[in-house]
Fold each of these.
Amino acid sequence: MKRIAIYPGSFDPITNGHLDILHRALKLFDEVIILVAVAAEKKTLFTLAERVEMIKEATKNIPNVHVDATKGLTIRYAKDQGAVALVRGLRAVSDFEYEFKLAAGNSFVDPNIEIVFFMARSEYSFLSSSTLKELFQQGVDIAALVPRSVVTALKKKLQ
Ligand code: ADP
């Protein structure tokens, strides 16, 4: 049976930190679905369609990756797809509390789907979508931190 994992997040926008987690997840799972979760309380710079498009562009040459979006619960989406796991990344200790609670909530809804955490690689341990946007707005060269299409998208959006 194909082992499918879901990698959910806001991806506003996708960074090389996200892509690193994706590549590592692909070593363990046959297929990874990147799921752009629509969180009503989160204000994003990019629209849902833009975020999905950027991810598709960034992953078009990586086999066994699909991109989708949901307004519903990630864990329910995972079950509907027959996924065995949710994939998340952990950066500093500060990520832990949030992820711990999120994982507990997800397990409450469906304890059969495992939540798998990957430790951020040291070179990306500071990198979040918000830090990236901040650095870009301050004129820092972000080319090493995101796929090229994201640099273009940021320029279009913010300059
Ligand atoms: P969310 O809004 O769900 O936190 P994000 O798009 O910010 O969505 O992140 C999705 C997942 O990827 C989260 O588990 C986050 O911790 C992880 N992640 C984001 N950036 C990195 C990074 N640089 N290294 C490792 N994991 C990361």
Note: The chain has six helices and five strands.
Amino acid sequence: MLCLGVESSCDETALALVQDGHLLCDLVATQEKMHAIFGGVVPEIASRIHLQSLFDLWKQLLDTSGIRPGDVDVVAVSRGPGLLGSLLMGMGFAKGLALGLGTRFVGVDHLLAHIFAPGLEQELPLPALALLVSGGHTQLYLVRSPVDHQLLGRTLDDAAGEAFDKMAKLLNLPYPGGKWIDALGRLDAPDPDLFPVPYLDNQNLDFSFSGLKTAMANYLAKYPELRLEKWSPGVDLKEIVARRPHLAVVCSSFNQAVVKGLLKKVRRALLGRHLKLQGLIVAGGVAANQALRQGATELAQEFSLPLVLPSLPLCTDNGAMIAHFGYLLAKSGFGHDLSIDAIPRGKPVPHDLIRFSS
Ligand code: KG4
Ligand code: ZN
């Protein structure tokens, strides 16, 4: 079964092909440079670039993979949650293709696709506790199968990735800034007294990063000398830190506060022994963070659970995860008709899969 995946939920346009669980081709056109000018994603610009990029990527996909359009069995598309205008570009393209080629069609939950992405690299130990940390979402799931999952906790305000991006913006680092805070933080040890670990004083599995974000913004306002006057691509981070030694400690401490806030809730869920878990999955853009990967590794060891971390290219948005999750759904006999809508950020993705034959 050959599944084409279409991703356009934010600022990456991506197409990928998965054949029977194996990745054949994975193409992405990133808009990072364009949005970096504005310090964040401008939705209308994102939609227009998706519209321009999708057809070019499709031609490139056919050239590099050697497949013919008629070889595609299933078209899978990221249906949300994400930026509505951006999603609609991918959705229109995918529906048109499925209609024209007469293939099966499936709308994929972008967040679940992140969680199942490492399934392209290793077998997933299910049922698993899955922490999804991205630019727009921070959610904790119990995942039993591609069609059987339960949301255990979610952020009540900002996502962890949003807090990273905000900090980077205040420091005049390029968008998206998480990777720069991560890299600068690796250059020194954290000071645990610098930032509060967010949202611990409760018994739930939800997250909150707005308090930490405010504490960080207040701190940076007190020390404006930490801000870069200007960013030059290719600059050596050690040079930046040599001129502002405290910057690495601040970034490292912020990394640590986010990671502690995330893993405190993961630990709480792991202690709920009734879950009968076989593994722990950490996925999404922020899963590329070195401090989080290290912390999750230690936590999984403590609970003697296999830990699944996607390789770095599979952490951030990509088409492979959509093609893979679409393949898993289609293989199990599920799909959609062409009437489904895109789901904007903040709205739950409906459980409206239709059972076809497998
Ligand atoms: O999953 P993703 O590519 O897009 C969404 O679905 O949102 O996640 C993007 C987020 C951004 O906030 C970005 O700053 C963050 O992931 N990110 C990181 C790192 N790499 C990407 N955050 C912390 N450390 C990183 N190494
Ligand atoms: Zn994502």
Note: The first helix runs from residue 32 to 36.
